[in-house]
Amino acid sequence: MADDGARVIGREPVKPGRESRQSGLSLLEVLVCIGILLILAGAVMPVAKVTLKRQKELELKRTLRTMREAIDLYKEYSDKGLIEKEGLDSEGYPTDLETLVKGVPQVNSTRKLKFLRRIPVDPFTHKDEWGLRSYQDEADSKSWGRQNVYDVYTLYSGTALDGSKYEDW
Predict the structure, then answer these.
(1) Per-residue confidence at 1, pLDDT binned at 50, 70, 90?
(2) Among the four residues 30, 91, 115, 145, which has the most C-beta atoms within 10 Å?
(3) What digits encode the pLDDT tens for the residues 71-104?
(4) 166/122 Cα distance (integer angstroms)
(5) Mind giving me the DSSP string for 74-106?
């Protein structure tokens, strides 16, 4: 037999530069790969949902802390006499959240003190609406007495990963 540069694969000679027609994946191999990918995706989805919820919870905590710090700073400035109290029954707290954004004039100055740049958006409701409590309201009250803003809470009624209610934070 003369050597004409052909390789033998199985029983048929294949000339150099030509590939076998049997290369590629069978339908069974493709289905097995798709099945493995579906199993992996099914395992990842619950983890992704919990991670997303945890991020929203952290954002909610940070937002509530920011607004409460702004309310406390307003109260501190009011008690020190750096800003005037807005009403007789305000106890030195702002009348609404918008007051913290618009600002209040300083005593003996033309400058305004602003305590928030904007009213933050609730990460769960995607709105800038918050539940408010007055100093005169009960600590767990869900209705606002409209005298002042002593505390804020989310209007979202879901349950957190730790089992607590978001509106109780």
Answers:
(1) low
(2) 115
(3) 999 999 999 989 887 766 678 899 999 999 999 9
(4) 11
(5) HHHHHHTTSB--SSTTSTTS-SSHHHHHH-EEB
